[in-house]
Amino acid sequence: MRQETPVAPTIGVLDLQGGVVEHLEHLAALGIPARRVKLAKDFEGVAGLIIPGGESTTLSRLLQRDGLDREIEERFRAGLKLWGTCAGAILLAREVIGEAAFLGLMDISVQRNAFGSQLDSFNRTVDIPALHETSVPLTFIRAPKILSLGEGVSSLLQIDDYHAAAEDPKILVTVFHPELTPNLAFHRHFVRKCGIPVQDGGERSDDRWRANSWVSFAPIP
Amino acid sequence: MTLSSERLVLNAQLAQMLKGGVIMDVTTPEQALIAQEAGAVAVMALERVPADIRKEGGVARMSDPDMIREIKEAVSIPVMAKVRIGHFVEAQLLEALKIDYIDESEVLTPADEECHIDKTQFSIPFVCGARNLGEACRRIAEGAAMIRTKGEAGTGNVVEAVRHMRTMNREIRVLRDMPSEEVTVFCRDNGIPNEVALKVREAGRLPVVNFAAGGIATPADAALMMQLGCDGVFVGSGIFKSGDPAKRAAAIVQATTYADDPAKVLEVSAGLGEPMVGIEIPTIPEEERLAQRGW
């Protein structure tokens, strides 16, 4: 007789606009079940949701239209973990300099597009011993800065005058794009934060990952 | 800068962040704000939308830097602007102006009928139009970080964009599935640089994002292009030449995201007011067809 098996805990990637497939590619590399989240029904069985990079105003309009923003808030109160990369971090912040906050679920203050135009986008490599034993490559694209952290929020990475990554018990934010590098450390960290076990190791070297590895998740018809 | 240089990868990655989004032509800061409010992922700053360029004629050039600067100051989303095909000095000016993306565009009057800009000489990213795989691959070899269909701009008629996307997809499938010894001759016959062809074979698609452009006027047009495999959509004249630009802009944004969901596209397609008046392609004299500019 067939036993009902519980659905494996899944990581969702908000699939409205932006760097969706890049996150799916990283989660696949970790062997973690992942799903695109586009409608309220897609949240079923999702332990953690990644709000990807893209344009935060675009994402906010799309989230508002069918009440997906309220769905995220309700699920969050019921235990859903969240990770915002770049635009996602802006949407999660309680304060956005010079404009109204959107979801406002994390006590941080951010400044959008804090480095300038695309010509000011850059890569750099840092050490984050708490997350990864070797240095971690970071990609900043028209990135925001986290200017201050509220009560209960801790910095994972401080650079110069700003925080580039921070977390509280339920939310992770990164102003850079781990999904655009070969490194899996931040994805592994978030998956664990969602209570899903994942093995160490299996790091991909640059020659196993290419900048266009995302294409296999975005085929032509 | 070479094909796989760090800067080019970073520039292609900005285009990746635009996936699933709509880039809108705007001619004033007010229009740019309407576009941003409606959910555009970027705006294209230009003095005349293609429909007006087509109507008024004359030489169409890069826009007034002051006008581009005003639009840049008005919005927080990325700002793109157009340069004439081959006009590398206009591109140098836009790089100095620090906009986010340059469109080397057939909508403007070409400055060079033989050569496109060597985009590897720039740090700023470029998007270029293409009608087929060969054209797309040549632009990528020249350093384009993003490709779009040419379509036939300023017509409100999607037929050419569909033709270009179908052509690219068909040629990609042929190249992907052929035995390796046939690749060289395929590249020769289609004017495809060999190293880009190998990347296309491996990826099974273009190795950079490929947007739809040229003639998109309705939410259904946008959804059609997305279902044909485009990564996002440019809308030129289709928004601000229509009866209710704000509403139509928001509807096209929604239709692009939910392209696979007919119920959603139906819902946003209702009550949009007058679309832009379209032009049938055969009524346009050969020499006035913009897609034929560049090769």
Instruction: Report the top-level CATH class of chain A.
Output: Alpha Beta
What is the element string of chain B, with H for helices and E for strands? HEHEHHEHEEHEHHHEHEHHH
Give the overall shape of chain A: globular
Got a strand count of chain A? 12
Numbering strands along the chain, what is their spatial order in the largest sheet of chain A?
2-1-3-4-12-11-10
Radius of gyration of chain B: 18 Å
What is the residue-averaged pLDDT of chain B?
95
- Identify low-pLDDT runs of chain A: none
**What summary fits the major beta sheet of chain A?**
7 strands, mixed
| Percent range of helical residues of chain B | 40-55%
How helix-rich are the residues of chain A, as a percent range? 10-25%
First-last Cα distance of chain B: 23 Å
Q: In one word, what is the shape of chain B?
A: globular
Could you say what the CATH architecture of chain A is? 3-Layer(aba) Sandwich
Query: What ranges of chain B have pLDDT less than 50 throughout 5 or more consecutive residues?
Result: none
For this structure, the CATH topology of chain A is Rossmann fold
Give the largest interface: A-B, 42 and 50 residues
Task: Walk me through what this model shows.
The complex is a heterodimer of chains A (221) and B (295). Chain A is α/β, with parallel strands linked by helices. Chain A has one domain (10-193): Rossmann fold (3-Layer(aba) Sandwich), CATH 3.40.50. Chain A has helices at 20-30, 56-65, 68-77, 87-92, 185-193; strands at 10-14, 34-37, 46-51, 81-85, 93-96, 106-111, 122-126, 136-140, 145-149, 154-159, 162-167, 171-174. The radius of gyration of chain A is 17 Å and the shape is globular. Chain B is an alpha/beta fold and 295 residues long. Chain B has 13 helices and eight strands. Chain B has an eight-stranded parallel β-sheet with strand order 7-6-5-4-3-2-1-8. In chain B, α2 links the parallel β1 (22-26) and β2 (42-45). The mean pLDDT of chain B is 95. At the A-B interface, α1 and α2 of A face α1, α2, α7 and α12 of B.
